[in-house]
Amino acid sequence: MGRAPVVAALLLLFTGCGKETVVIQKGLTGIDATIVYDGALGLDQIRVSGRLDDGTAVFPATARPEPPQPLTTGETSVVILLNEALAGSAIYVRGDGLVAGTVSASDQERLTLLAAALVPVTLALGDQAICGDGRTRAGIETCDDGNDWGTDGCSAVCLVEADWSCTTPDPGPSVCTSNLSCDAQRCTTGCCSGADCVAATFDACGVEARGCAPCDPIRADDCIGGECTCGEAAACLPGQHCVLGACVCDPTSCANGCCADNRCQLRSVDACAPAGDACAPCDPVAADTCGANGECRCGSLLACALGQHCDPNGCHCDATTCDGCCTTSGVCDRGDQKNRCGSAGADCTACTGPGAACDAGACDACTVSCGGGCCTGSTCHEPAELSFCGAAGDACVWCDPTRADNCGGDGHCHCGLGAACAPGSVCGAQGCAPP
Ligand SMILES: [Ca+2]
Ligand SMILES: [Ca+2]
Question: Which of 46, 86, 106, 292 is deepest in the core (most CB within 10 A)?
Fold first, then answer.
């Protein structure tokens, strides 16, 4: 094929004719470039270079042969081996034909490097790309501002720089303008919206060098002189709501807290209330935290009922909070009923016996100890008698002495050995008889 070898060192000669992807040793990637040119141009060197999208060089630009010598065959081949870490990268490969060191013909192609393989590419050298000649070479340069330095919008390799826009007139050169050209010097009466200086409004408020930004409609109601305001004063503080020109703390501005001194506070057990309401402390006996809706809670449960106290295990009835007695379900009871009797947070007990009574939080002792007689209050009548008749601690009853003459061992009124007489009859020595 009459192709001249032109590379060495980093660039290795490749003599094959095929343009298939060639597998090479693992750990490498590379390019198999065929450079086609007009043999009549008088080229004496071919220079190959590669870069990433951002202009970073992938490998050093290398010109061969060295020293220069006439290139007339019209085609040459270059193999470039690269570290496999570059595999998968999309790169630009550029070829330039030089005459006495001056670029006379150029081409550029884009390809993606593959692991352990040579990617074939053909560079057909056409119009020269010379950065700084003022002419934008389409396909290789994206601008040419007539110089070969950057930071002016068109880079040292004639690529448009970030945040710049460049024209590409024919003939050139390019004119580049910053996309960030609005600044304090030029925008004294409004604010910068991108590259534009605009009059400040509520939705785009700002002044001079400051960029335009919308005012917070909760904290402000106007934009005056480039500043967000509430009425004619400064915008409200975070957690406040601008209402009719005044800053207040309300549910709109304080959805996740409660209000204290017109400011929005984070909730705690010491400052707990629904959104926008006045903060208030929880009863530390009944609660140990403030819930998400501003309700006092004992752990994950609602705050404890009166008479219970909150500890890490939940709500409990005990001496701390209950002057009466605690039921089996943990409720504090007054403790003054015969079936729920107790005091000082003790467990409620039931006072037994029909005459049982609870006195000052304790079962009347009579009902317990007066087994052979009956009770009136705490007084035990034992043995039972006609006026205080009963048994086993029951409440004493009074026997009518006209109808009964003794209180039996069963605790009931009797006439002799029989039952007490019916109303209208009289108990005598012979038993019940008409009066
Ligand atoms: Ca140019
Ligand atoms: Ca420039």
Answer: 46
